[in-house]
Amino acid sequence: MNDEELKAIEVAKSVDARGTSCPGPLLAAKKAIGQIDKGQVMEVLSADEGTRKDIPKWCNKKGFEYLGTLEESGFYKIFLRK
Amino acid sequence: MEPDIEQKIKEMQSQISELQGRVTDIEGTHKDQLAMIVMSGDMDKILATMVVAVGAAAMDTEVKLFFTFWSIAALRDPKKKVTGKSSIAKMFGRMLPAGRNNLKLSKMNMGGYGPKMIKKLMKKQKVFSLDEFFEQAAELDIEIVICEMSMDLMGFKKEEIIDYPNLGYGGVATFLADANESRIQLFI
Q1: What residues of A are labeled active site?
Q2: Among the residues of B73-164, which ranges form H helices?
Q3: Which residue in chain B has the smallest CA separation from A28?
Q4: β-pair type (B182-187, B167-170)
Q5: Position B3 pLDDT exceeds 90
Q6: Whole-model pTM?
Q7: What is the pLDDT of residues A2-15, one digit of tens each?
Q8: A2-16: buried (b, 16+ CB within 10 Å) or exposed (e) per residue?
Q9: d(C-alpha A38, C-alpha A71), whole Å
């Protein structure tokens, strides 16, 4: 998805994991994913560069769809569909 | 179709079915599980252990940690006092770190200044502390098995080990059995 599409997407759950470093954001994502239904979108906010690479790998393993990442000032918004 | 091409296709088909059989075997015996021997008791290596373990558990991989030798000092609870130790056991007890917050760095320890500096940096970089890692590990049901033989050898007693929900004691066969059915095996 491109940036415009990501900005317009309806997010069912937002996880703010900017307070932790690797593997904190991944853990926060794992704990939150149970709170949304299949087909819904979750965004993970992370200031950790590694998480940007880790979330797609996790999605791949769990069968979630990684949608893309938006770069904000000082953090990333990582989108995925359950 | 040419007869030799037909023959080749038949050969390939039998090769594919043989490979399919082998893949089924591998998948059947190896679980989505990580088995790790933790031997080092250095702060940096215990930290690496916990990053990998908690990361794996976050990815829904089952995790089994087998603590042996120097690493057992990291599982001591400094608040727990034990009596009735032999003089050698007492010496070991005094010379080895009293728990995960008193560990040394494998490099740049600088008489204890190194670990202090790293802890400060970890806080600044928002990395979990070892206390937080163990808390998360407990919540994620990461299993800790302590080598019984090392406990005896170093004179540690079960009464001085931390309170942790999924903690047990075992021998090398316990680790080998776990490793045998794990897709990932590591030694730190």
Answers
A1: 22
A2: 87-95, 113-124, 130-139, 148-154
A3: B58
A4: unpaired
A5: no
A6: 0.85
A7: 888 999 999 999 99
A8: eeeebeeeeeebebe
A9: 26
This model of the complex carries an ipTM of 0.85
Architecture of domain B32-187: 3-Layer(aba) Sandwich (3.40)
Which of chain B's residues have a Cβ under 8 Å away from the Cβ of A32? none
Helices B130-139, B43-58: crossing angle, 10 deg rounding? 30
Contact A27 B60 (CB under 8 A): no
Number of domains in chain A: 1
Give mean pLDDT, residues B138-160: 95
Instruction: Name the residue type at position A25.
Output: P
Q: Cβ(B51)–Cβ(B142) under 8 Å? A: no
Q: Judging by DSSP bridges, how do beta strands A65-72 and B31-38 pair with one another?
A: unpaired
Residue A26 structural domain:
3-81
